[in-house]
Structures are given as structure tokens and as C-alpha cells.
Amino acid sequence: MAHSRISMAAMRSALTRGSAQQCQRCFSNSALQTKLARSGAAAMNNSVRSRLPIMQKRTKYNTVEQAKSRHKTGPFSWKSGLLFVATCGLLVWYFEHEKERMQRKRIAEANKGVGRPLVGGPFELIDHDGKPFTSEMMKGKYALVYFGFTRCPDICPEELDKMARMLDIVKEKAPAGSLLPIFITCDPERDDPAALKGYLAEFHPDFIGLTGTYDQIKDTCKKYRVYFSTPQNVKPGQDYLVDHSIYFYLMDPDGDFVEALGRQHSPDEGAKLILDHMKDWAKR
């Protein structure tokens, strides 16, 4: 009886150990299979991914021709072309502007003498109202000085019309009173203040007429390098013409000669020169 019990216990023990080992093997096989399944899935995913086409970033071009046309132009475009042209235009304008300014400066400096101006100088005359007028009254403003006479048949009227037009253009673009328009007679014998006043009123109300004695006019003309000549042996009451230089003399606010404007200058060209010199003076 005891022997039977021992045999039954041994049999149970063997069965328990066998079942445990079989379960352990089953558990190990199950974990291994799960691991292998996971590895296989990963490998399959990698394989599938490797076979899938690579998706590129979407561009703004709809066709291959459009993309190729972009590369045909290289790094340049119409915007860069416009910027290049505009930059070149500004540079050309700047250098031309500076060239003209330096040319005006050279002319102005060349017309100034050492110690005294080559053109211009002190004078004492009377205006068309019979009041004293001196060269000092020109200081602080630009002055446009013209020499002529009231009985001139054609040249003086043409030049005074031009002078009036230049004055109007300058007045539109410069402060009021920046330019003094001065007419100095070369015929003081006949051009008294009353004659000057009536004559100049026909051209512009701002014109200033100056006269004086023959010696005063002769001295002023000499200082401005103005040539004038009256015929000799003229009888009283006899009409005659006065030969004289035909220039406008531009004087700066210091009373120095800047530039001579001749008949080759139109009113617009003359006014532009005057305004340019005024701008140069303002930048000093």
C-alpha cells in the first residue's frame, strides 16, 4: 500500500514537471513568433516603402516646359532688368548734372579776377524814378544787366522781350525778388528817367532803368566791358543810332560777374542757366 502511494506521488511529480517544461517551451515559442512577426512586418514595410515612388514638393509650374523656361532666363528677370535700367539712368543723370554744375562753376570762377572782377564794378547812377541807384544796391540778389537805348529800332526790343520772359520764368521757380532786371542806357543824352520809365513799362513792370551823365555811363560801360559808340557831329534834334554790345550780364549776390547770356540763348535756356546758378549759390 505504501509502495503504491510512492509511485502515485512520483508519477504526479513527473507529470507536473513535464507540463511546466511544455508550457515554458510554448511560451518561448510564442514570444519568438511574435518577435519574428514584428521583424517581418518591419522588413515588409521597408520593402514596400522602397518600392513606392518618391513624392517631390509641389511647385508652381504645371508642365515641364514651364519649369525649363524658368532656367533658360538664368538668374535674370524682367524685374532685375528694369532695376538695372533705372539704376543706369539715375547714374547717367547724376553725372550729367554734376558735369553741368562743374562747368558753371568753372565759368563763374574764370570770370572772377584777382582782387577785382573782370566784368562789373562800382557805379553811381539814377533810376527811372530819378532816385540814386548804386552797385551796392545789387548786393544780396542776382542781377541781370543789359545795355541799350530806348530808340533802338529792333535789337533792344527783341532782347528786352527775352529779358521779360526770363524774368517771369525765374519768378515762377525762385523766391520773389531773387533777380533784379536792370537796363542801363548807352544814350544818356536822350534817355532821361522819364524816357526810360515810359519805354520799359511796355516790356515789364519790374524793369529798373538807369541813366546818368555821359561820363558816368562811359565809366560803367568800361567796367562791364561793354562797347558802345555814338556818331560824331550830330546836330541838335537829329536822329541817330547807338552801336553797342548785345549781352545780358548775370551778376551774383556778391556783385561778381557770373556769365554772359547772348542772342544764342532762348528765354527758356537763359532762365535755366540763371536758376542753375541760383541753386549752386544756395548750396554753398
UniProtKB/TrEMBL annotation:
It comes from Akanthomyces muscarius. It is found in: Mitochondrion inner membrane. CDD domains: SCO. Cu cation binds at residues 152, 156, 244. Its main location: mitochondrion. It comes from the Eukaryota. GO terms for molecular function: copper chaperone activity; copper ion binding. Pfam families: SCO1-SenC. Disulfide bonds join 152-156. GO terms for biological process: cell redox homeostasis; intracellular copper ion homeostasis; mitochondrial respiratory chain complex IV assembly. The chain crosses the membrane at residues 76-95. GO terms for cellular component: mitochondrial inner membrane. This is Protein sco1. Keywords: Copper, Disulfide bond, Membrane, Metal-binding, Mitochondrion, Mitochondrion inner membrane, Transmembrane, Transmembrane helix. Belongs to the SCO1/2 family.
